Structure formats: structure tokens, C-alpha cells
Amino acid sequence: MPFLRHRLEWTGPNIGRGVTTFCCGDAEVFTDTEANASALAIGNFVNGIETYLPDDVSLRVVGPVEMVNEQTGALMFDIPLSPTPPTIVGDNTGGYAAGVGASIQLNTGDVRNGRRVKGRIFVVPLSGASFAPDGTLVDTVRNDLTTAAGNLLSGLNLAGTDWQVWRRPSTVGASDGELIDVSSVTVADKAAWLRTRRD
User: Fold this and answer.
1) Domain ranges across the chain
2) Which of 33, 34, 42, 197 would you call most buried, defined as having the most Cβ atoms within 10 angstroms of its Cβ?
């Protein structure tokens, strides 16, 4: 089965450029309507958390959407986004640490090789005010991130493009990739950080 691969691009003077990847759907074919509806759901997720994002950080869903073979990871074709998704800019004017934010765990009901299948996305950076003195997330921030991620899960499902964790093929050239439905989301009550290969 193919799936849709959306890319949410992050840019800013202190963070450079980053990408969050969303794997969606599990169907024989996807329509332009489904691709655009799932892109809109991702944009709504960003709108739901923008108050905690620094005001020099911009995010946008990048088109076209890629349709990818589940088993091999090979690109099948592109689906254009129309209209072009808007750029969303963070609202928070306070200070922040460029590589520090939160992580959202993508829970599934599946077990593979004796371990529960999980995914994770990062929301980095977050404003410095998002954290308590002990380094945990402020309760309001954690609750709002959980709500936004839960709304994204529901929005993708309504679009007919269920949120998925993609287990990549085991080796180069293998055809054993697999999609697993995301059943719930959890926001860890601690700071998460990203590092580059130069760190």
C-alpha cells in the first residue's frame, strides 16, 4: 500500500532549517482532496501551538506531497497542494534555547520483535517560558501540546489519511516496510533537544 509523506519545514535565524515528517494514510490511491485535507490538518496543528513558538521561527507544509511505497520506501509520484499552504510564524517574543523543546510520542497497538511500535515527533524550539525551573514543561503548555496533537490525529483520520508510524525496510533493497496506525499521542513532561551532526 502507498502512503502520503508530508513535510513540515521549520526555518529561523537561530535554528537554520529543519523538517518534521508525517506519514499518513494507507490506501491503494489518494486524491488531491485527501492530500490537501491532511496538509490543512497539519497546518491546524501548528496554529494550535504557535503561541509557544518563538516569533522568529516560521513553519510551512511543503508541497508537493509525496506518495511512497510502504514496502520499499520508493517514491511513486507527487501530489500538488492547492492552494499553497500558508507560512505560520510563532507568536512568542520571549527568549529561547534554539535546540530545546518538547517531544510527542506516537503510540500504536502493535508489537514487533517483542517491543511496542512507537513513533515520535519533536516540537523544537519552544519559548523559554514553556519550561518550569526544574526543566519540565509548564502544565498549560503540555496540555495544549497534547490537545493539538490529539486534534491532528482526529483531523488526519477525518481526512481519510490516518496518522501512521512507518517501519522502514530492514535493509537497503528490502520490501518489508510496514505502516502501523497511531492510536494515541503522549507529550513527555520533560525538555527534548535536537542536535546536529556537528554537535
Assistant:
1) 2-193
2) 42
Q: How far is CA 110 from the centre of its chain?
A: 20
Q: What is the DSSP letter of 159?
A: T
Q: Which of 135, 132, 97, 116 is nearest to 182 (CA)?
A: 116
Question: In this predicted structure, what is the pLDDT of residue 24?
Answer: 95
Nearest to 60 by CA among 35, 90, 97, 103: 90
Residue 172: how many CB atoms within 10 A of its CB? 6
* Residue partners of 194: CB distance under 8 A and separation at least 6: 18, 99, 101, 122, 124
Residues of the chain with pLDDT under 50: 197, 199
ω before 169 within 30° of 0 (cis)? no
pLDDT of residue 115: 87
What is the C-alpha radius of gyration for the chain, rounded to an integer number of angstroms?
17
Say which amino acid occupies 139. D
* Partners of 164 in beta bridges: 23, 181
Query: Max Cα separation, the chain?
Result: 49
What is d(CA 6, CA 3) in angstroms, rounded to the nearest whole number? 10
DSSP-assigned states of every residue in 55-78: TT-EEEEEEEEEEEETTT--EEEE
The pLDDT, as a whole number, for residue 196 is 59
Q: Which of 74, 73, 68 is nearest to 30 (CA)?
A: 68
Half-sphere exposure (Cβ direction) of 187: Cα atoms closer than 13 Å: 21
User: Which three three-digit cell numbers place residue 73?
Assistant: 520506501
